[in-house]
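TL;DR need structure tokens for one chain.
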Amino acid sequence: MRIADELEANEAAILDANAVDVTAAERRHIDATLLQRLRLKPAKLRTLAAGIRAIAAQEEPLRKARPGRAHASTSCRRQLDGWC
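>> reply
TL;DR here they are.
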């Protein structure tokens, strides 16, 4: 969650640095599609922060043992057998 908090807390600095990057890319005549992907907006930062929080809130799937089996990380052989 700390990463999401830092994104929001440092939004102005991130957007300022991104503007410098976009300007440099424009001077190098970078393709418009790539420029669009490079350009950050406040809504995109909020979406990133929300996505990070959503991922952090999910249950860790690798920490769950399958019924009748040992923890997934206990055996390389089980990984090779394809059940992990």
